[in-house]
Amino acid sequence: MPTERTLVLLKPDAVARRLAGPILTRFEQKGLRIAALKLIQVTPELAKRHYAEHVQKPFYPMLESFITAGPTVALVLEGKSAISVVRGMMGPTNGRDAAPGTIRGDYGTSRQMNLVHGSDGPEAAAKEIAIYFQPHEVVDATEPLAPWLSAGD
Ligand code: UDP
């Protein structure tokens, strides 16, 4: 079971609906580690880099309007088989098809405004992490804080 890193976006609908915290909590409770995290405004240029494979598709103009409409939380999650674990937790693209218990299944009924993005494979993860984060922004696992916590007031 490989330890993987994956690029996750909490899209503008998740932030606007105050669901960034609950969705992030799900990933942490699953045991995935936050390796990088920031709040960003996606620009049209960034959207075109991220969604290069979709730029020519009929739905792209609406997708770009949506993903640039407000703040997005970008993060790198790390864990065993993190890429497929995150994809499973997200559910399928369309919230109407997504089973209860998945993020999209629990919080939405839209195909476009589906709250969350997760890389769909190792190649995409490497490419997408590099789009959103400088290498120094992705933090390696640190030593446990136990010695400091037990020594504190
Ligand atoms: N999308 C859309 N209309 C479509 C298909 C996709 O607006 O008909 C949006 C949706 O937000 C989706 C994103 O484009 O999450 C990327 O599509 P993809 O097929 O890669 O879906 P995902 O991997 O996010 O489930």
From TrEMBL:
Compartment annotation: Cytoplasm
Gene Ontology cellular component annotations, sorted alphabetically: cytoplasm
Pfam families, per database record: NDK
Subunit structure: Homotetramer.
Binding site for ATP: 11, 59, 87, 93, 104, 114
Primary residence: cytoplasm
Every Nucleoside diphosphate kinase-like domain range: 3-140
Annotated family: Belongs to the NDK family.
Signal peptide: none
Gene Ontology MF term list: ATP binding; metal ion binding; nucleoside diphosphate kinase activity
Species in which this protein is naturally found: Planctopirus limnophila (strain ATCC 43296 / DSM 3776 / IFAM 1008 / Mu 290) (Planctomyces limnophilus)
SMART domains: NDK
Catalytic site: 117
Record-given protein name: Nucleoside diphosphate kinase
Enzyme class, UniProt record, top EC level: transferase
Cofactors demanded by this protein: Mg(2+)
GO biological process, alphabetically ordered: CTP biosynthetic process; GTP biosynthetic process; UTP biosynthetic process
Lineage: Bacteria, Pseudomonadati, Planctomycetota, Planctomycetia, Planctomycetales
Functional note: Major role in the synthesis of nucleoside triphosphates other than ATP. The ATP gamma phosphate is transferred to the NDP beta phosphate via a ping-pong mechanism, using a phosphorylated active-site intermediate.
EC number, as in UniProt: 2.7.4.6
